[in-house]
Design brief:
mainly alpha; single chain; rod-shaped; about 120 residues
Length: about 120
């Protein structure tokens, strides 16, 4: 082998040695990253389930709350309507209930009101 061939072979060996070192270094770094991801994954998975369960409970509670609230509003509206009807009946009475026996003794017709005015003169 000539001197030039030996130099070329040595240069090729050095280049392949550098390549081998860079591949091993890259492989070590990537394996460390993969190992770190595997170690972190169970914690991320563990944390995810309680959060999803909480969100599910909240989302299922909203319709129940709305239904209960709607029923309470409907019951309140019914009670209000009944109260208004009672007030309307009491206000529209000509004579209060305790005075009904007295009202039956006296007739309050329009013709008698006019004759009473004439008598007052």
């Amino acid at each position: 082998m000539t001197e030039q061939e030996r130099a070329e072979t040595a240069r090729l060996e050095r280049a392949l040695g550098h390549f081998r070192e860079s591949v091993r270094g890259w492989s070590d770094r990537e394996s460390e990253r993969a190992l770190a991801k595997m170690r972190a994954a169970p914690r991320a998975g563990w944390f995810r389930w309680p959060v999803l369960a909480t969100v599910g409970l909240v989302l299922s509670a909203v319709p129940v709350y709305k239904t209960v609230n709607d029923r309470q509003q409907a019951a309140q509206a019914l009670a209000d309507a009944q109260l208004l009807e009672q007030v309307d009946r009491e206000v529209s009475e000509a004579v209060p209930s305790p005075m009904e026996p007295l009202a039956q003794l006296v007739s309050w017709g329009p013709s008698q009101v006019g004759s009473q005015k004439g008598d007052v003169r």
